[in-house]
Write a structure and sequence with these properties.
Structural class: mainly alpha
Shape: elongated
Number of strands: 4
CATH architecture of the largest domain: Up-down Bundle
CATH class of the largest domain: Mainly Alpha
Strand order of the largest sheet: 1-2
Radius of gyration: 31 Å
Largest sheet: 2 strands, antiparallel
Strand content: under 5%
Order of helices and strands: HHHHHHEEHHHHEHHEHHHHHHH
Helix content: 55-70%
Length: about 450
């Protein structure tokens, strides 16, 4: 294929250099956005009198036919083309003749690729937002089903205080809700059209950039043409948001991996989302969760690649910026794939409530409630803390739990202890007494579920 820019050059580009320079093998995925942008650009050129009606109709007919043929598979991408923009323009010219050569009036590939990428990412991010909402709904429903399941809450991976499984799950709902707002914030900032910035300095033609922006669903235009073609802040913002999503999925995966182990056995993963061993017939491996955890580093790498690529390049466009697409595409596709497998994995996961409860009964996780019992009877908390610490040490030596210790033994530490202490330190009571907003208490958990449901509306 002849290069559109070949007039200045006496020699053809070296084949190896041509392959190195080409981006068609990855930017071809933006063909719908490229054609959509070209259709709006042609409409504006016609409206401004730069194209006549016949030229506009020919270009529109040609672009629509290319889009249909690419979608159906009748037309395949020419991998000798330098990029998707060159491919579409060359194919258009092949189909409608010199009319096709007029389409590029008052624009450059610099603002064209900036437009295509914003349009593509807007479409993809909206898909991710919908997947996140589906995951939030799935986790919320699992929480709703397990409001009575008591488990140990952990700090430092040590049993700390009794909580409900629902409360633990809802923590992930809150994280994922923030992920949705982060993406929406990033979308709002990127939703401005760079088309019409041209190479970097704008154009001498009487164009209407606002018309194109409105037609493509943007909130306005990039107000500085240099910034319009050189800005990739939105890629960094989105990759950062994707990295945060993956961090959340990775933390959740880590817990699922622990919970499904024999050491915990708090949950059972469905067979559809686990694998076996080639030599150990008893194994049921949480491979999907492990892969999500592993792919998190990949998305982090995409973010760092983009940050590093941009950090040293002067304004305006530089070829380095071609490296933005493979990173952002990879990060986007990785997040989508991970969410698509994570949602049904959570939906089909079975909590084993009796094991959670049994684990909650050990580790003295009701010790804080025992200290609170003394505090409510007038003892300073630090004094109560010290007494309970001594009692815990005594129980460990005797290999008993707090509820197994005799009342007389309690009274040897303080006369404030009465028979009612046993009901105060029961796991159910420890949970029910948490009445502060956002706590693990039953009423608070119901409120959190209602909060998530309201936001999902």
């Amino acid at each position: 294929m002849d290069k559109m820019w070949a007039g200045r050059f006496e020699k053809a580009l070296d084949k190896q250099a041509d392959d190195f320079n080409s981006s068609i093998h990855f930017d071809s995925k933006m063909y719908r956005q490229d054609i959509r942008g070209s259709l709006e650009h042609a409409l504006m050129l016609c409206s401004c009198g730069i194209l006549n009606q016949t030229e506009y109709e020919k270009i529109t007919e040609g672009l629509n036919s290319i889009s249909e043929d690419l979608t159906s598979g009748k037309l395949t991408f020419d991998m000798d083309a330098e990029d998707i923009h060159m491919f579409v323009e060359a194919e258009l010219t092949k189909r409608i003749g010199d009319y096709g050569k007029k389409l590029h009036t008052a624009r450059s590939r610099n603002d064209q690729v900036a437009l295509d990428l914003r349009l593509y990412m807007r479409d993809e991010v909206n898909k991710i937002v919908e997947l996140l909402k589906e995951l939030i709904y799935t986790v919320k429903e699992k929480a709703k089903e397990n409001q009575d399941a008591i488990m140990p809450g952990y700090t430092h991976l040590q049993r700390a205080q009794p909580i409900t499984f629902a409360h633990h799950l809802l923590a992930y709902c809150m994280m994922l809700l923030r992920d949705v707002t982060r993406l929406k914030d990033a979308l709002a900032r990127m939703n401005y059209s760079p088309l019409g910035s041209c190479a970097l300095a704008g154009t001498t033609y009487p164009t209407d950039r606002d018309m194109v922006a409105q037609g493509l669903g943007f909130d306005g235009v990039c107000m500085n043409s240099i910034d319009g073609v050189s800005d990739r802040d939105y890629c960094i913002e989105l990759e950062s948001a994707f990295a945060t999503i993956m961090m959340h999925l990775s933390r959740f995966s880590e817990e699922i991996i622990l919970w499904s182990s024999w050491e915990f056995k708090f949950v059972e993963l469905d067979d559809s989302y686990t694998t076996g061993s080639s030599i150990m017939p008893q194994k049921k491996n949480p491979d999907m969760a492990e892969l999500v955890r592993g792919k998190t580093g990949r998305v982090y790498g995409d973010l760092m690649a983009t940050l590093t690529m941009l950090k040293g390049i002067p304004l305006a466009y530089n070829k380095d910026m071609q490296e933005d697409k493979e990173a952002i595409f990879d990060a986007t596709e990785t997040v989508i794939k991970c969410l698509e497998v994570f949602i049904p994995m959570i939906k089909t996961m079975t909590p084993i409530k009796e094991n959670m409860y049994k684990a909650a009964g050990k580790g003295f996780i009701n010790a804080t409630d025992l200290a609170d019992y003394l505090t409510k009877k007038g003892m300073p908390f630090r004094s109560a803390y010290k007494i309970v610490g001594t009692i815990v040490a005594e129980c460990i030596k005797k290999d008993i739990t707090l509820d197994q210790m005799e009342l007389d033994a309690y009274k040897s530490h303080s006369e404030l202890f009465e028979e009612d202490l046993y009901s105060e330190i029961s796991l159910e009571s420890c949970v029910a007494k948490r009445i502060s907003k956002g706590s693990t208490g039953y009423a608070s958990v119901k409120e959190q579920i209602a909060y998530v449901e309201e936001l999902l509306k």
